[in-house]
Design goal:
Layout: H1 2-38, H2 41-62, H3 66-86, H4 88-100, H5 103-106, H6 118-133, E1 138-143, E2 158-163, H7 166-172, E3 183-187, E4 190-196, H8 211-222, E5 226-231, E6 238-242, E7 245-250, H9 252-262, H10 276-299, H11 304-309
Parallel strand pairs: 1-3
Antiparallel strand pairs: 1-5, 2-4, 3-4, 5-6, 6-7
């Protein structure tokens, strides 16, 4: 009887430990997925604050601090709604990948911003300057990281695959050409296609904004890995759309600074969630250094970290 009782307690404890371990692993996986979705350090602080609130709520519930737990639970719900609104494009991508069954992509970190050479940025800026001066309407889509899925466009447009040049951009948007009404997609240093028809934004916008501005807002709401440069046909003003927000009017100098800032490998654009393999290598390297460091120092041999630096 005593052996049966001990065996039952051991089985129950093992099952409880297994459930707790599974619970922790699922939370870690969900946290990693959130970091992959956010993909930028400037937003990471908001996520960290939200995680701190969740932990405080869980601890207050365990300690039976009922009033504090009630207040923290309401704060967590309010913050979750606020984050869903502020990060709607990221959560939309998350839900779309779930719906498509793309579970592997959920654990793949977003790539860093694809840097564009100064010559490409200069060509774009010079073309926009001439279009603005002559009051010729234009809409440019600039990819920032991974390629845009053509399913996000209403009409894909005409393939060009040409080198970026100010002369070609100006020619495309001349009023008498067949492609001037659509958008032009730029990937790296290549003009991929023109005459693209974009989905319009459903947001309430100013009456001064035309179809090009609403299309730029619509595509950047729908796709997070792009920005849009818009030139107004009526006023010649320059606008920059990102994440559904329109920044206008811009001067040529401000436009160039904005493009250089977005397409330079800065810390703010650094991905916050490394790949699983690289993360494992970093952890194993740290453990190895901490375990072998005293022995290596005693023998006078360089550590792994010092060898990596060399």
């Amino acid at each position: 009887m005593g052996d049966w009782w001990k065996q039952w307690l051991t089985t129950l404890w093992a099952q409880s430990l297994l459930v707790q371990t599974l619970d922790i692993l699922l939370v870690l996986a969900l946290t990693y997925m959130i970091l992959v979705i956010i993909s930028e350090r400037r937003t990471l602080w908001m996520v960290r604050g939200f995680i701190v609130l969740m932990l405080a709520s869980a601890i207050s519930g365990r300690l039976e601090l009922h009033l504090l737990n009630f207040v923290l639970e309401k704060l967590v719900i309010g913050c979750a709604v606020a984050m869903a609104v502020a990060l709607q494009s990221e959560f939309r991508r998350f839900l779309e990948q779930l719906g498509r069954g793309e579970f592997k992509q959920l654990f793949q970190p977003s790539r860093l911003a694809v840097p564009k050479s100064d010559s490409v940025i200069d060509e774009i800026v010079d073309a926009v300057k001439e279009l603005s001066k002559n009051r010729i309407g234009a809409l440019l889509i600039l990819e920032t990281t991974s390629p845009i899925d053509e399913r996000d466009f209403s009409v894909p447009g005409v393939k060009l695959n040409a080198e970026v040049s100010k002369e070609l951009i100006q020619t495309i948007f001349q009023p008498k050409t067949l492609l001037h009404d659509g958008a032009t997609l730029i990937r790296g240093s290549r003009i991929v296609s023109s005459g693209i028809i974009l989905p319009l934004s459903g947001r309430t916008a100013s009456r001064q904004l035309g179809t090009r501005h609403r299309a730029a807002m619509g595509i950047t709401e729908r796709v997070e890995n792009c920005i849009c440069v818009v030139v107004s046909e009526e006023t010649g003003s320059i606008s920059l759309a990102e994440r559904g927000t329109l920044n206008r009017p811009l001067t040529i100098t401000k436009l160039k600074e904005s493009l250089e800032d977005r397409f330079s490998p800065t810390v703010d654009r650094e991905a916050v969630a490394p790949g699983l393999l690289s993360l494992g290598r970093q952890i194993s390297r740290q453990i190895q250094n901490k375990a072998l460091l005293p022995i290596l120092r005693l023998l006078g041999l360089p550590s792994t970290a010092s060898r990596d630096k060399k």
